[in-house]
TrEMBL record:
The active site is at S67 (phosphoserine intermediate). It catalyses: N-acetyl-alpha-D-glucosamine 1-phosphate = N-acetyl-D-glucosamine 6-phosphate. GO terms for biological process: carbohydrate metabolic process; cell wall organization; UDP-N-acetylglucosamine biosynthetic process. This is Phosphoacetylglucosamine mutase. Binds 1 Mg(2+) ion per subunit. CDD domains: PGM3 (cd03086). Residues 204-289, 303-441 form the Phosphoacetylglucosamine mutase AMG1 domain. Keywords: Carbohydrate metabolism, Cell wall biogenesis/degradation, Isomerase, Magnesium, Metal-binding, Phosphoprotein. The keyword Magnesium applies. Residues 99-177 form the Alpha-D-phosphohexomutase alpha/beta/alpha domain. Gene3D superfamilies: Alpha-D-Glucose-1,6-Bisphosphate, subunit A, domain 3, Alpha-D-phosphohexomutase, C-terminal domain. Pfam families: AMG1_II, AMG1_III, PGM_PMM_I, PGM_PMM_IV. Catalyzes the conversion of GlcNAc-6-P into GlcNAc-1-P during the synthesis of uridine diphosphate/UDP-GlcNAc, which is a biosynthetic precursor of chitin and also supplies the amino sugars for N-linked oligosaccharides of glycoproteins.
Length: 549
């Protein structure tokens, strides 16, 4: 077995000492206060190197971001060769490595991985990395690069980019020169691919007379979307707001997709009028929500569920019009999807709907079971994946009428405008704009597909969230024993009531979701269940749940 230079490891590791903290690679990688992350990111660089060597030198991605969190936080996520999230078993290796207390333990764990996973250290390792606009990014990049030095990885720095741009680049680099070639592995290549496809999708259709006001959460989406505008030319008119990336205290503050979705209101200070349509990205531009103001000024949200419904509707109709009905379309949601959206998909669109646990990797995996799989979390993170056989059918279909020719052309362009590696706010925005332009729809017409059931998401701070265990795609609690029965008894008393409880994978809280027939019943239901959880965990340590409503 080839070995590695332990002195080199020790010298580098000494520069990145582990603080007295326990780390876990969660649903969104490692994420916490940036000042605790130095050793974690250094070691993530080692894990990425080992992963690349294990996969025969395939390029692995590292993204430094904390998405919709505030600027003092940061994090790192690793990206597998096709642009997908790191394989589950390696998340566990990343966790173990991040928790090694001494240099000796770290060296021993690297040896263990090398021998148990049969990693040939003489193989090359290639990694590509990027980061968002957080000021802590620079120092964390330095730690990551030191991690690459341990086992000699060859690295490419993509600078400040969005999370989905990094996922895109990873897939491009690994498919270059193959029949699955995904595109040019540069941000310019990304802009060009998306913009060219978008232009095909809106060709010959009048542009909307209203403006798209785009809230970039004062994050990386602002400079990057600005950079894409010249590629789009006059095919899309956008006004960017919340684009201050200099004052880091503004990042995701009172703005952005997470704020708009959870607060169910527009970004603070944004005056909305009923003529325009609005969209928000999150801090690393992988989430997107739309919204508009009704004539009477009422705020109306078009979230990830609405985007999934719009995309599924459009794709199903195109597949039919193209005469390739053998291509199966399915939608994947989580338990947070609004009940009305699931009902609309099943009953109006007659499309199969799967429900999976929270976390993009679960959605992505399930979506790959369909020829065309549409997946979205209600919070606006999602995309569409096309199977190789669906792409083959779409690219080899022969038209027998002008209408079929149009449908086939549009389907091909759709498969190009959609970032198939991961949820991508830029790509999803172009998808929505293309469909609205094709249909000549306003957001209000889009919204008429179904009416959301009132819903409420509440956080409960408890002493130990690990005691909450769920089954059935997180819709039922099996532990603490008895709590689910108590929840069921309360839910039964509410018209159209639905509620579930699960521990968060990214925050130290338990989440309570509730839906019911009216706003007041929903709030009451959410409050009652949150109170139950708080009392059940007699160590409930946060503020009383009532304060969250
Ligand atoms: P947790 O904290 O596990 O609920 C949140 C989101 C997920 C996903 C991850 C990763 C909700 C209710 N949960 O997970 O959908 O986006 O963050 O960012 O929105
Ligand atoms: Zn994000």
């Amino acid at each position: 077995m080839a070995t590695f230079n332990v002195d080199n490891l020790n010298a580098l590791s000494d520069l990145h000492p582990k603080p007295d903290t326990t780390f876990a690679y969660g649903t969104a990688g490692f994420r916490m206060k940036a000042n605790l992350l130095d050793s974690v990111i250094f070691r993530a660089g080692i894990v990425a190197t080992l992963r690349s060597k294990k996969l025969d030198g395939k390029v692995i991605g590292c993204m430094i971001t904390a998405s919709h969190n505030a600027a003092p936080d940061n994090g790192v996520k690793l990206v597998d060769p096709m642009g997908e999230m790191l394989e589950g078993s390696w998340e566990a290796h990343a966790t173990t490595m991040s928790n090694c207390e001494t240099n000796e333990q770290l060296a021993a764990y690297i040896h263990t991985m090398v021998s148990t996973l049969n990693i040939d250290l003489t193989k090359p390792a290639r990694v590509v990395f990027g980061r968002d606009t957080r000021p802590s990014g620079d120092a964390l990049v330095a730690a990551l690069k030191d991690g690459f030095k341990v086992l000699d990885a060859e690295s490419t720095d993509m600078g400040i980019i969005t999370t989905p741009q990094l996922h895109y680049a990873v897939r491009c680099l690994n498919t270059q020169g193959t029949p699955e070639a995904y595109g040019e592995p540069t941000v310019e290549g990304y802009y060009k691919k998306l913009a060219d496809a978008f232009k095909v999708l809106v060709e010959g259709k009048p542009r909307s007379s209203s403006t798209l006001i785009l809230d970039c959460a004062n994050g990386v989406g602002a400079p990057k979307f600005q950079e894409m505008l010249p590629f789009l030319g006059d095919s899309l008119a956008v006004k960017i707001v919340n684009d201050d990336i200099v004052d880091d205290t503004k990042l995701n503050l009172n703005s952005g997709a997470d704020y708009v979705k959870t607060q169910q209101r527009g970004p603070l200070g944004l005056k909305m009028n009923s003529q325009d349509r609005y969209a928000s990205f999150d801090g690393d531009a992988d989430r997107l929500v739309y919204y508009y103001a009704d004539e009477d000024g009422t705020f109306k949200l078009l979230d990830g569920d609405k985007i999934a419904g719009l995309a599924a509707m459009f794709i199903i109709e195109l597949v039919k019009a193209a005469g390739i009905d053998n291509v199966s379309v399915g939608v994947v949601q989580t338990a947070y999807a609004n009940g009305a959206s699931t009902q609309y998909l099943r009953s109006n669109l007659n499309v199969p709907v799967s429900c999976v646990p929270t976390g993009v990797k679960h959605l992505h995996h399930e979506a790959m079971k369909y020829d065309v799989g549409v997946y979205f979390e209600a919070n606006g993170h999602g995309t569409v994946v096309f199977s190789p056989s669906a792409l083959k059918t779409i690219y080899t279909a022969e038209e027998s009428s002008p209408a079929q020719a149009v449908a086939i052309r549009l389907l091909r362009a759709l498969s190009e405008v959609i970032n198939q590696t991961v949820g991508d706010a830029f790509s999803d925005l172009l998808l929505v704009e293309a469909i609205l332009t094709q249909r000549q729809w306003t957001p209000k017409i889009w919204d008429q597909a179904y009416t959301d059931l009132p819903n409420r998401l509440v956080k409960v701070v408890v002493q130990d969230r690990s005691i909450f265990k769920t089954v059935d795609a997180e819709r039922k609690l099996v532990e603490p024993v008895g709590l689910q029965d108590a929840i069921d008894a309360i839910v039964l008393k509410f018209r159209g009531g639905r509620s579930f409880v699960r521990p968060s994978g990214t925050e130290d809280v338990v989440r309570v979701y509730a839906e019911a027939a009216t706003r007041s019943e929903t709030d009451e239901l959410a409050y009652r269940i949150a109170g139950l959880v708080f009392n059940f965990n007699s160590n409930g340590s946060g503020p009383r749940p009532r304060e969250f409503l």
